[in-house]
Amino acid sequence: MAASPQLAGMTCNFETECTDSDCADSSYSATVQMTAARPVDSHLTIMSAVFSDVSETYEMQGKIVDGNRRMFNMDSTAGARLLTIAADGTARYTNHIAEPLMAMTYLGQCKEDR
Question: Which domain of life is it from (predicted)?
């Protein structure tokens, strides 16, 4: 059984925002605080986290596979969200919105708070 990862917090800064039709510079940022982690084996950990930005805070569920974090939230009436953070901190955050139908993707970096 693998050791449980530290329930670390992260700050994510996204320099680029893309909609369905174009991309632009962005100063969007958010924090991610892991709230639970359950190792399955040496490669896989099931986890949950709280995602917060200037407009809202919500829970995300996901997994860590070989250092890559994938989290999702399907509970919002605004849309479905997916956050992927590579082991080197490279991050992608996408929000799929139903009204109006569109997707917004943010490209950036997440770093563990120290």
Answer: Bacteria
Quote the Cα angle for 49-104-110, to 5°. Answer: 40
Global pTM value: 0.88
Residues 6+ apart with CB under 8 A from 101: none
CATH number of the domain at 9-112, please?
Answer: 2.40.128
Query: Tell me: the pLDDT tens digits for 83-104?
Result: 999 999 999 999 998 888 999 9
The DSSP secondary-structure symbol of 78 reads S
How many angstroms separate the CA atoms of 17 and 114, rounded?
27
- Average pLDDT in the chain: 90
